[in-house]
Design a protein that fits this description.
Elements: H1 3-10, H2 14-22, E1 30-31, E2 37-38, H3 41-55, H4 60-67, H5 74-106, H6 114-117, H7 127-136, H8 138-150, H9 153-173, H10 181-197, H11 203-215, H12 217-223, H13 230-244
Antiparallel strand pairs: 1-2
Helix pairs in contact: 1-2, 3-4, 7-8, 9-10, 10-13, 11-12, 11-13
InterPro entries: DNA-bd_dom_put_sf, MerR-type_HTH_dom, MerR_fam, TipA-like_antibiotic-bd, TipAS_dom
Protein name: DNA-binding transcriptional MerR regulator
Domain HTH merR-type: 1-69
């Protein structure tokens, strides 16, 4: 299958497949004399594994280490992935049950104690932080938290205004090309802002963050408040920036 066909089949972008090839994560088995990538059934099996691991929050670097390891066992990996997804389904089922119970309470059908109202919630860990730790490791997140702990409330407010201004600037550009000079200048501001205010971001981490803007509905919803499609535009612009500044 050609790259465009694989992208449509898997629901990912052609740019993503090109990136996987460039970093040695998934190289197509063949290339035509004209340079077209051709993916075999075995390649598609590897891509499925990559997407399973990505869905579970593994970084591309970690996925590459896993699937290229001589000891990698596909069936064993599928069992692990199934176990993780079942645990997530169990958590979601508990939350759905709590919502249904709360609806009955609000309608006067049952009584709920205050303790019952919050059974299942656990915000001792920030879900965004957990995701980031899985993707980029503890050190970068600890640096970010340390920086944020040192700034005053007024500085936090200024940072928020600066961040929103960058979002608005990018929103004005979102209907154009993410490769344009204007888009890359604006996304460079975003890269600089993140490194100044939230820790040290490598180019790969920056790219990964852009991917999460689209993969994680929470991010997409927040970013797209500035304009529909902004999250996708930022993802693409961040990928271009990472490629051009290697």
């Amino acid at each position: 299958m050609k790259v465009k066909e694989v992208a449509e089949l898997a629901g990912i972008s052609v740019r993503t497949l090109h990136h996987y090839d460039a970093i040695g994560l998934l190289a197509p088995s063949q290339k035509t004399a004209a340079g077209y990538r051709l993916y075999s059934d075995e390649d598609l099996g590897k891509l499925q594994q990559i997407l399973f691991f990505k869905e579970l929050g593994f970084s591309l670097k970690k996925i590459k280490e896993i699937i290229h390891s001589p000891s990698f066992d596909k069936c064993e990996a599928l069992q692990l992935q199934k176990k993780c997804l079942l645990e997530e389904r169990e958590r979601l089922d508990k939350m759905i049950g709590l919502i249904e119970k709360t609806i009955k309470h609000e309608q006067g059908e049952i009584e709920m104690s205050n303790k019952e109202k919050f059974a299942g919630f656990d915000f001792r860990q920030n879900p965004y932080e957990q995701e980031a730790r899985r993707r980029w490791g503890d050190e970068a997140i600890d640096q970010s938290n340390a920086k944020l702990a040192e700034i005053s409330e007024e500085e936090r407010k200024q940072m928020g205004e600066e961040m929103n201004e960058i979002y608005r600037k990018l929103a004005h550009l979102k209907d154009g090309s993410p490769e344009s000079k204007e888009a890359q200048a604006a996304i460079a501001e975003w890269f600089t802002f993140l490194n100044r205010s939230a820790g040290s971001y490598s180019l790969e981490a920056f790219r990964g963050l852009g991917e999460m803007y689209v993969a994680d509905a929470r991010f997409t919803k927040n970013i797209d408040q500035f304009g529909d499609g902004l999250a996708k535009f930022m993802r693409d612009a961040m990928a271009v920036y990472a490629d051009q500044n290697k």
